[in-house]
Amino acid sequence: MRRALLLLAVAVLLLVPCAHAEPPSPGVTHVSVPPGTPLVEWGAQLFGGNCVTCHGPAGRGVFSPVQGAGGTTGLGPSLQGVGAQAADFYLRTGYMPLADPRKQPRRSRVLFSQRELEALTSYVASLGQGPAVPTPHPERGNLAAGLKQFTEHCAGCHQVAAAGGYVTNAVAPALDQATPVQIAEAARIGPYLMPRFSERQISNAQLDSIIRYVTYARHPDDRGGWALGHLGPVPEGLVTWFIGIAAIVATCVVIGRRLRA
Ligand code: HEC
Ligand code: HEC
Q1: Is the torsion defined by CA of 245, 171, 50, 83 positive or negative?
Q2: Is residue 28 within 6 Å of ligand 1 at its C-beta?
Q3: Are 103 and 54 within 8 A, CB to CB?
Q4: Could you give the angle at the alpha carbon of 111 between the alpha carbons of 107 and 116, nearest 5°?
Q5: Whose CA is nearest to atom 37 of ligand 1?
Q6: CA distance readout (Å), 166 to 27, 71, 108, 173
Q7: Does ligand 2 come within 6 angstroms of the Cβ of 43?
Q8: Are the CB atoms for 94 and 110 separated by under 8 Å?
Q9: Are 47 and 90 in contact (CB under 8 A)?
Q10: Cis, peptide link before residue 195, omega less than 30° from 0
Q11: Which of 217, 232, 195 is nearest to 138 (CA)?
Q12: Span 213-229, mean pLDDT?
């Protein structure tokens, strides 16, 4: 009986870590093409190896009753007309290829080479008329105007320090890794649950200011006070709590002693 129990315990201990282990990273499929193959053709083959299961032949999308990421029903949305802009953003952030269509895309290591990225982007762009990769000019932007625009349009989700936060059903990531081009792309695309901003809502000049502010917010000068890693209200609240709890406990100890005396 004891031996059986022991064996059972060992078996459970061995199984638990397996059950919790992350599935192995799927990686990406590279294809070798003869030299001189047009970029779009190479991109089509890479698309066939890495994207077609979710985005369908010719990027028409795969629709199914399964609830997909961002509330889409299907494995992947249509890519016709999303243009080089969306392809460039989703690939260079490592958001795509996605491992699980029901999960929010997250920034991760890019497993394609520079040339493969160009090939895939030109293939997606060839699927329909769509916006090109933008060329922002943050150096022309104005920091104060950027802070104002960012507070108005972006801080509700990303926090005013651009340190990220939570919104219903999604994580609004910290903006410390996005390049100026990616910030401009994100604003125009509105990835996942983020809204997209038209040029009427935010002009290109205003976007330049926003980008200037976001890149500035990575190294702000802290005038007085603790920065607390610029993590925002949650850790700030926690610190307050810890100080508060220590104060309450100390008070109780002092009062307790007096009552006993
Ligand atoms: C309603 C909430 C919301 C608002 C408002 C919003 N965002 Fe986002 N943002 C998100 C979410 C959620 C993501 C993650 C997208 C994903 O995972 O596909 C995101 C992603 C991004 C990214 C990519 C970051 C990375 O490294 O992965 C950038 C850049 C960005 N947002 C900039 C902006 C800017 C600039 C504004 C204002 C013009 C803005 N966002 C407004 C929710 C928001
Ligand atoms: C497991 C399924 C899956 C795979 C594989 C996948 N995608 Fe996606 N893709 C999605 C989902 C789901 C979304 C919607 C995510 C969102 O709303 O942010 C998406 C969104 C995109 C978008 C943005 C579309 C838009 O409307 O702006 C692009 C571009 C894209 N994928 C390109 C690719 C490319 C290129 C590959 C192959 C290298 C790929 N995807 C592989 C599921 C997938």
Answers
A1: negative
A2: no
A3: no
A4: 115
A5: 154
A6: 28, 17, 19, 8
A7: no
A8: yes
A9: no
A10: no
A11: 217
A12: 75
Instruction: Tell me the C-alpha to C-alpha distance, in Å, between residue 194 and each of 18, 164, 188.
Output: 35, 13, 10
Q: How far apart are CA 37 and CA 115, in angstroms?
A: 12
CA angle, 158 as apex, 154 and 163 as ends, to 5°?
Answer: 135
Q: How far is CA 53 from the centre of its chain?
A: 22
Query: pLDDT-based confidence at 228, cuts 50/70/90?
Result: low
CB contact at 8 A, 62 and 55: yes
Q: What's the confidence (pLDDT) of residue 15? A: 47
Please, what is the Cα angle at 59 between 57 and 63, to 5 degrees? 80
Which residue puts its alpha carbon closest to atom 6 of ligand 2?
97
Ligand 2 center to 87 CA (angstroms):
8
The burial of 57, by beta-carbon neighbours within 10 Å (0-12 exposed, 13-18 middle, 19 or more buried), is given as: exposed
Centre of ligand 2 from the C-alpha of residue 261, in Å: 71
Per the structure block, which two tokens stand in for 160? 């005013």
Ligand nearest to the CA of 170: 1
Ligand 2 mean position to 32 CA, how many Å?
23
Question: Ligand 2, closest atom to CA 191?
Answer: 18
Would you state the torsion angle of the CA atoms of residues 150, 154, 159, 164, taken in this order, to the nearest 10 degrees? -120
Distance CA 158, CA 232 (A): 10
Each residue's pLDDT tens digit, 30-56:
999 999 999 999 999 999 999 999 999
**Rg of the Cα trace of the chain?**
25
